[in-house]
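F.,

This is the one I mentioned.
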């Protein structure tokens, strides 16, 4: 399944000015300015950009938790567009934001069970799916522990497990490895690679350039609410005459 945006714009209002020098007033600005992207089945697409570039806003719109001011998000199943609005789109998307919070007094297993029920999964299939995910994510030792008792890496794995319950075709991850140790990061990276190899679509944002260079099939760089580069890591490095994605990133954004 593919996901794409067509001329997405997102307008916000902010307060500007200084009481001492300039009277405060409201000002409209575009966090996203006519952004069109696409991610294909069996592809990991990296969304990279400096702070305030519009990455999180874009991912929230793709994840259906925020509506664009104009433009549209489309899911394509082969040549057919998925219809049915936001509810139907959610059935195909697993979205992980950078600040997702879980109920601390629930266990990992309980969180997954609750999520499965929200998505309307058949009760007979829920326990089997949960056990499959626990094994896939290496959570056997803490699946029945409360979220409040987990480490940062374990909590992030639980968060991703929540996104997997309904077997989405598209994953949207905002900083999934931020602040994690090497082992936890590798678990999540290996998961993204395995889902890509199964034909799933993966979009993710990261500030770790080495991780993006290793993992991404293609990268969209965003700055000032606009896409400023699109290509594989090798193609973008060739365009800028650099030999690593960190320097490529600087060349496009500084």
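My design for it:
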């Amino acid at each position: 399944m593919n996901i794409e945006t067509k001329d997405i714009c997102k307008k916000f209002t902010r307060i500007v000015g200084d009481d001492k020098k300039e009277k405060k007033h409201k000002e409209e600005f575009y966090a996203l300015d006519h952004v069109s992207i696409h991610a294909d089945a069996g592809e990991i697409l990296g969304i990279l950009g400096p702070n305030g570039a519009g990455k999180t806003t874009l991912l929230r719109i793709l994840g259906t938790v925020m509506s664009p001011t104009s433009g549209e998000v489309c899911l394509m199943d082969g040549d057919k567009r998925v219809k049915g609005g936001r509810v139907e789109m959610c059935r195909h998307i697993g979205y992980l934001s950078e600040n997702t919070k879980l109920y601390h007094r629930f266990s990992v297993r309980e969180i997954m069970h609750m999520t499965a029920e929200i998505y309307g999964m058949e009760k007979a299939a829920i326990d089997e799916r949960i056990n499959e995910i626990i094994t896939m994510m290496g959570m056997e030792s803490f699946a029945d522990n409360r979220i409040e008792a987990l480490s940062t890496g374990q909590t992030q794995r639980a968060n991703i497990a929540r996104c997997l319950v309904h077997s989405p075709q598209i994953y949207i991850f905002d900083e999934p490895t931020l602040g994690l140790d090497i082992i936890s990061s590798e678990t999540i990276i290996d998961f993204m690679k395995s889902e890509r190899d199964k034909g799933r679509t993966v979009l993710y944002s990261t500030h770790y350039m080495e991780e993006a260079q290793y993992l991404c099939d293609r990268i969209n760089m965003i700055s000032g609410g606009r896409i400023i580069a699109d290509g594989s890591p090798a193609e973008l490095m060739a365009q800028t005459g650099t030999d690593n994605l960190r320097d490529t990133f600087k060349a496009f954004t500084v």
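The mean pLDDT is 90.

Talk soon.
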